[in-house]
C-alpha cells in the first residue's frame, strides 16, 4: 500500500494507493494545482513562504503499526514553482 505525505509538515494526504504508479498519478494531479490552493496550500502560519514536499511512502499494512518499506521524495510545490525530485516526473 502506498500513501502520499508532505514531509515538510508530517501530514498524510487522504487516500491509499495499490501501486506506486497510482500514487504518482495523484502526485501529477497535485502538481497541476496552484501552490496557494487546497490541498497544496501549506497548513502553517507562514504558508506564503512555505510549501509542500511530497513523498510516496510504501507500507506493509499487515503490521500494526504499519511497517514502512520505502520512501521516495517526488515533488516540491511552493510560490517559486513546482520542482520534480530525483527524476520523478
Write up this protein.
- With 89 residues, the protein is mostly beta strands.
- The protein has one domain.
- Helix content is 13%, strand content 37%.
- The chain is built from one helix and five strands, in the order E-E-H-E-E-E.
- The chain has one helix at residues 20-31, and strands at residues 2-6, 11-12, 51-60, 67-78, 81-84.
- It has a five-stranded antiparallel β-sheet with strand order 2-1-3-4-5, with helices on one face.
- The two termini are 20 Å apart.
Instruction: Please tally the β strands and state the result.
Output: 5
User: How many domains?
Assistant: 1
Beta content comes to 35-45%
Strand order of the largest sheet: 2-1-3-4-5
- Helix and strand composition category: mainly beta
Features:
89 residues, mainly beta, five-stranded antiparallel sheet
Write a brief structural summary.
This protein has one helix at residues 20-31; strands spanning 2-6, 11-12, 51-60, 67-78, 81-84.
Write the layout of secondary structure elements.
Blueprint: E1 2-6, E2 11-12, H1 20-31, E3 51-60, E4 67-78, E5 81-84
Antiparallel strand pairs: 1-2, 1-3, 3-4, 4-5
Amino acid at each position: 500500500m502506498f500513501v502520499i505525505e508532505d514531509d515538510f509538515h508530517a501530514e498524510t494526504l487522504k487516500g491509499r494507493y495499490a501501486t506506486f504508479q497510482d500514487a504518482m498519478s495523484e502526485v501529477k494531479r497535485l502538481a497541476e494545482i496552484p501552490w496557494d490552493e487546497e490541498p497544496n496550500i501549506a497548513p502553517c502560519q507562514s504558508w506564503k513562504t512555505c510549501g509542500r514536499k511530497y513523498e510516496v511512502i510504501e507500507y506493509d499494512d499487515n503490521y500494526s503499526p504499519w511497517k514502512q518499506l520505502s520512501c521516495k521524495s517526488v515533488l516540491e510545490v511552493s510560490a517559486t514553482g513546482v520542482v520534480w525530485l530525483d527524476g520523478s516526473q
